[in-house]
């Protein structure tokens, strides 16, 4: 009898683990199916738009779902706001954070959503700052390269003109039958 009870208590965590795996697999399948449906719909709309069969797609109110109160430990399901550029994306994340704090008594899920939005804002601002810095560095190197190229070409032109003037002087001396004396070394052994 004790062996049967011991086996049942040992099998309980395995059953819970299997149940959690099944539930996670089911949720993943549902999310993937929903994503595929949405992607196919978007693809069909774009194809129709390219062919000229449809009017331009306007943003529907379905994409902006109303927030619902969640219990502790639950996260709100918010679609990732993406703008045409980083500034628009930052503004959209700020709106998400504002809506998370708009609830009169914010829940744990509201705080988690707001902190996630703040992290995304910080990340996007950092990316924007890095992009601006890289652009500034690229512009500075372009100006430095152009000034170096002009300095280099001026220096090269001066060297050519100097060499040409020396050649002219030597050539003129040869025409006038002047020979340049070579230094002579007296070596005695």
Provide a compact summary of the structure.
This protein is mainly α and 189 residues long.
Task: Furnish the topology, listing elements before pairings.
Layout: H1 2-51, H2 86-102, H3 108-175
Helix pairs in contact: 2-3
Order of helices and strands: HHH
Class inferred from helices and paired strands: mainly alpha
| DSSP strand content | under 5%
Number of strands: 0
User: What is the rounded distance between the termini?
Assistant: 120 Å
Describe the main β-sheet briefly. Answer: none
Helix fraction bin: over 70%
Count up the helices: 3
The structural domain count equals: 2
Rg over CA atoms, rounded to whole Å, is: 38 Å
Q: Ranges with pLDDT <50 over ≥5 residues?
A: 60-67
Query: How would the global form be characterised?
Result: elongated
Mean pLDDT: 77
Describe the structure in your own words.
This protein has helices spanning 2-51, 86-102, 108-175. It has 189 residues and is an all-alpha fold. The chain has 2 domains: 1-58; 67-182.
């Amino acid at each position: 009898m004790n062996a049967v009870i011991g086996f049942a208590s040992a099998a309980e965590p395995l059953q819970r683990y299997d149940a959690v795996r099944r539930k996670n697999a089911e949720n993943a399948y549902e999310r993937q199916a929903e994503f595929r449906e949405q992607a196919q719909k978007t693809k069909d709309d774009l194809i129709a738009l390219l062919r000229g069969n449809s009017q331009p797609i306007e943003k529907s109110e379905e994409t902006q779902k109303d927030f619902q109160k969640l219990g502790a430990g639950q996260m709100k399901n918010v679609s990732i706001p993406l703008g045409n550029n980083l500034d628009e994306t930052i503004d959209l994340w700020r709106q998400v954070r504002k809506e998370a704090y708009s609830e009169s008594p914010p829940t744990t899920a509201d705080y988690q959503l707001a902190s996630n939005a703040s992290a995304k804002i910080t990340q996007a601002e950092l990316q924007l700052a890095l992009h601006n810095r890289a652009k500034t560095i690229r512009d500075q190197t372009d100006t430095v390269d152009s000034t170096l190229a002009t300095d280099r070409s001026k220096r090269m032109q001066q060297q050519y003109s100097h060499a040409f003037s020396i050649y002219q002087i030597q050539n003129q001396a040869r025409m006038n039958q002047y020979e340049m004396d070579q230094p002579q070394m007296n070596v005695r052994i």
